[in-house]
Amino acid sequence: MTRESIREADPASPGADDDESPLRIEPRWPIALVFGSYIIVTIVLRVVEPHRESIGPHWLVPTIEVALLVVLLAADPAHIRDRRRWLRPLAIVLAFLLAGVALLSTGVLISQLIRGGTVTDSASSLLASGALIWLGNCLVFGLLYWLLDSGGPYARFLGEREFPDFAFTQHQSPELAPPGWRPRYVDYLILGLTTSTAFSPTDVLPLARWAKLTMGLQSLISLAVIGLVIARAVNVFS
Asked: Which of 34, 65, 115, 214 has the fewest CB atoms found within 10 Å of its own CB?
């Protein structure tokens, strides 16, 4: 079954989804693996470093992360058509809530680094807070790119938009990719990591204005966190 036939098929038809393998749309296990691991790291660091900087109650961030993970996993590719109208907006709202928490955490950490605070007096707490905030920003922005680019994973599968918001290497050089190639979650995860590491686009170019502004914001956040945390950590170790 082709993408065009899926789009034209009757949603109530018994074979509308059965002929299309969910793995061809997009598997959810990479998201579960990445965010599950991050949630575990968050909880472990909270136990090991109880004085580590955090926003709100200790349960707030893990609760948002778990809720977002449940929503993303509920968007089973085999049945996403029936749930798309409410699952996608909910996933985007939760992702932006998590992004807001990440931005607030970054602001609190930078404020404590400038003014001085409990977390800045301990090298281990400082490095744990900085590393977790930096990694969280990578994951959150990568997830936002995945959710928003060209209308989301299902819209990319159907080819609903003529022009993408991000130009991957395979878009610019189709001869390097198999026919029908499209970016998946891991591609956006790497985009989030490289943007926070290189502070600029690497092999993926933002085309839409929102993509350019979002990547610029992510680069600025990463630069501030890495620069200030390393500078303060050197002073603490000294």
From this structure: 115
